[in-house]
Amino acid sequence: MARRPGLHWKVRPYMTARGRTSSRNPLLIHTLVSTGNRYDPLLAASLAPASRTLYEQARRMCSVAELSASCGLPLGLTRVLIGDLLKIGQLVVHDARPSQDLALLERLRAGLVRLT
Amino acid sequence: MQAWSDSPDAVATESMTSAKIVIAGGFGVGKTTAVEAISEIPAIRTESWMTAAAAQIDRLDPGIDKVTTTVAMDFGRVTIDEALVLYLFGTPGQPRFWPMWDDLVRGAVGALVLVDTNHLENSFAAVNYFENDADVPWIVCVNLFHGVATHELSEVREALTLPPHVPLIAADIRSARNVAQALLTVVDHAAKQAVG
């Protein structure tokens, strides 16, 4: 069989996420996640393909949106799978500061001034 | 100390944080151009699914009231300092993707609404959205397509009926420095609102 339509990514999400389309973790699209310092190859080997790809990609800290793009998964499914790995303590969410925090705005300002 | 880790970011990760600015506006107004001008990585495209009410389908077949569609959006990244990354997200332009804007905008420092003075009407919807449906600080930026202003900013403000407290600027968004300046205006406006 040359083509296996069942493996098309538009079908996979439902299978992979066992029917779930949203996550209880309110992850923002720019929230940074990573495996921290605890990458576990045995765990990676035990994960379903989509989760394994995501876990591997998260060895390098990046945002939820970047993970979605680099794993080729829709955002919603990426959130669900990240949520699963968070629940078992295998991913770390990095501090998301409130967006109206003045210290954060001052740092943004200083960084942008250097680019003008 | 972290000899077992092969993560290049291992030392810095614990204190890393991120921020987001949304770049909005109508179709073809230059959102992706702006993201690409300043992003340190090529603009990345990610996809999301959303369910949208489909009026035409409703009329044809009363049994179907929703369709699922794929929405693509482009984003970029700017390293602000060793522990802060700024993400720029371009909103999907077409009106049918609006429900996704809430997700994009949540937690943003602010928004930059791009307008093209030759097609001002293309950005009316984005202006409406930030005026009525979002609670993030926002500013409007006239995209000087060829570095030339074709209309006075006061005329643009009037045509958009912009509230006086919303900053209005003009920039050539092909230039990284111009985009940085526009983002700076967003940050300054956000700081002003945060102070109250």
From TrEMBL, chain A:
InterPro entries on file: DUF742 (IPR007995)
Short name of any one Pfam family annotated for the protein: DUF742
Protein name: DUF742 domain-containing protein
Protein source organism: Actinoplanes couchii
UniProtKB/TrEMBL annotation, chain B:
Keyword Nucleotide-binding (UniProt): yes
Signal peptide coordinates: none
The keyword Protein transport appears for this protein: no
Top-level taxon in the UniProt lineage: Bacteria
Keywords noted in UniProt: GTP-binding, Hydrolase, Nucleotide-binding
PANTHER family to which the protein is assigned, alphabetical: ATP/GTP-BINDING PROTEIN-RELATED, GLIDING MOTILITY PROTEIN MGLA
Family: Belongs to the GPN-loop GTPase family.
Name listed for the protein in its UniProt record: ATP/GTP-binding protein
